[in-house]
Amino acid sequence: MTVDVHAHCIPEAVMDTLEKQGERFGMEIVGDHERRQVVVAGRVTTGPLRGDLVDLNQRLAKMDQTGVDMQMISCWIDLSAYALEAAEGARFSRMYNEGLAGVVAEHPDRFMALSTVPLQTPVAAAAELRFAVGELGMAGVEIAATVDGAELDDRDLDPFWEAAAELRCLVLIHPYNPLAGRNVKRYFLDNAIGRPAETSIGVAHMVMGGVFERYPDLQVCVVHGGGFLPYQAGRLDQAYRAKPGLAGANLTRPPSDWLKNLYYDTVTHSPEVLAFLVEFAGIDHVLLGTDFPFEMGDDDPVGTVQAIPGLTESDRQSILEGNAKRLLAGIRR
């Protein structure tokens, strides 16, 4: 059973609720047809509301076509909604998570889910994560690489990290606002370079800020093959050695030790890069991903894994399903 850990979804129930009651969540749908967008808290506007994020029949057909047996569906990252006020954020997360749970209940043989939580209020985020994993049976949570401008090593987030570590659930880290302040719209660089760069910065803050030292039981997967982190691990280690009072202030071990403990998805668009990633992190720390339904996703994820040079059939099965199953089995519900 192949398991795709990186696939985005807007449940139809969520769309219906936002169309009818968006103001309850501090949101408003604007525009029409293919130009519809969501305005969050009056100041953040999502990208277009794509139909393939909602349409389950289209999703299932694509899964069948690409050999994906099970999708771990998660929030469209544009709707993480960290800009909302505390009560609105908690209300929205609960509504979205119940919508995702409804999709799983409709097709339990094809879908699992990762929750969304109101990280702008970390204590509420911890409570929602416990509810989602314990009561809704979710596999964990997807979070953005920044929290409305705050970095992931912010000590205010510790209640959330503590809950995730206690549960040993999957935490999928995904870019949201690529290289804010830089003009990267030309040449599609906001996606091609900006997204992996933003992820790298966000997770590097976690590593250098000692989040993994404080919570070693965290089970974190970094999308898009880890951004640039696995390929610049030596540079982070050099910073740790060269500036111990700055880069190493929160660490007792080199950054690469922690990077090798993370999980990484296969969305790199290069079997040769994946071969390096397997060598860096170990075969047991690479997970199948597609980034469905976006144009920078992998349209042939199983073929990508089959094309990685130097792997045994057992290695390939670990990436396609075994590693995800092991993670799921370790969740403390």
Number of helices: 12
Assembly state (oligomeric) = single chain
* Rg measurement, Å: 19 Å
Note the overall shape. globular
Main pleated sheet: 8 strands, parallel
- Weakly predicted, low-confidence segments: none
CATH architecture: Alpha-Beta Barrel
**CATH top level assignment:** Alpha Beta
Strand arrangement within the widest β-sheet reads 1-5-6-7-8-9-10-11
Count the strands?
11
The level of helicity is 40-55%
Output the structural class: alpha/beta
How does this model look, in words?
The chain is an alpha/beta fold and 333 residues long. It has one domain (3-10, 56-329): Metal-dependent hydrolases (TIM Barrel). Helix content is 41%, strand content 14%.
List the defining traits of the structure above.
333 residues; alpha/beta; TIM Barrel; 8-stranded parallel beta sheet; 3-stranded antiparallel beta sheet; 41% helix; globular
Produce the secondary structure layout.
Layout: E1 3-9, H1 12-21, E2 27-30, E3 37-40, E4 44-45, H2 56-66, E5 70-75, H3 86-106, E6 111-115, H4 122-134, E7 140-144, H5 158-167, E8 170-174, H6 189-208, H7 211-214, E9 219-222, H8 233-242, H9 255-259, E10 263-265, H10 271-281, E11 286-287, H11 301-306, H12 313-329
Parallel strand pairs: 1-5, 5-6, 6-7, 7-8, 8-9, 9-10, 10-11
Antiparallel strand pairs: 2-3, 3-4
Helix pairs in contact: 3-4, 4-5
Describe, in short, the structure shown.
The chain has 333 residues and is α/β, with parallel strands linked by helices. The chain is 41% helix and 14% strand.
